Amino acid sequence: MRRCTGIALIAAAALALSGCSGSGGATTADAAAGDGLTPVKIAGVVTTSTVPIWVAQSEGIFEEHGLEVEMEPVQNFAAAAPSLLNGQFQFAIAATSPVIVAISEGMPLRAVVGTSATVEDPEAEGNQLVVPADSPLTDITDLAGKKVGTNQVGSGPYAAALASYVRAGGDPEAIEWVSMPMNEQLLALENGQLDAAVLAEPFTASALAEGNRPLVSLYRDPGNEVLAAEAPYVTIISSESYLAEHADVAERLRAAMIEANAVASERPELVIEGLVEQTDMDPEAAERLVLPAFVGEMTGEEMQDMADAMIDAGIIPGPFDGAAAVWQP
């Protein structure tokens, strides 16, 4: 089995910390700011997926729901998980795949609300398996015997690519995976070190601008779909203890984010403005991005579908209860 041992170790450490924390962040949640707003910290990597948080801040949506939200940048989910469980942060934003691994390893986490989601048209997805323009590869099963780049073995795009390949009848042992940052994968494609690259935005747009072509949509390869259209693959999570003690705060955050996702979907110019302002992205590059859908509502089906793909890819052993992984007010 291709197990995510790094996440398993993180889960063990975080569980040990959570056993000592007790309150799950009660002090922060119970103390209202001077203006009567409840302060909340959300940890996460700054990406397109954090756009709805910026929208909720800039458009006053959090205030309308009685919240004062601070975004705390972190390197990755691994950096946020222990601090989430010991109460330093009340929420964290993460791709569903590492969250599923963590939950399957026993970490007491629940998804609360979504952000980035798949779109209707597979060819309009920002998550693509990309090959050079002159590549002989025409089908996902052609990856057998090839070198394929991924930013991290076990990541959502990796799991989606491998599950789609396995579902199409490919031998999972036949691919040579090469772990490297997405920006380095672009150069590796150009110089022939890689036959294909598993990419997400903004790197997909950069790869296509340089003349590469998409082979398959990672999450929505027709006939081998991992996720349905408008299914969140990034979520805001919290600990079970915090959700039990502060359901009112969680419900308000959930409602605010559902509203902010809708605004981000309706006003793509806000998304572009936020990316340029918050990440110093070049405005022209931001305009080229293939934006995801932004969906807040989560039913558990998206978690189940992603978990099923990860089981097919050998990342988790299963079974997994997607509905139980999502907190409902």
Automatic annotation (TrEMBL):
It is found in: Periplasm. InterPro entries: Solute-binding_3/MltF_N, SsuA/THI5. Gene3D superfamilies: Periplasmic binding protein-like II. Residues 50-265 form the Solute-binding protein family 3/N-terminal domain. Transmembrane segments: none annotated. It comes from the Bacteria. Pfam families: NMT1. Keywords: Signal. Residues 1-26 form the signal peptide. Belongs to the bacterial solute-binding protein SsuA/TauA family. This is ABC transporter substrate-binding protein.
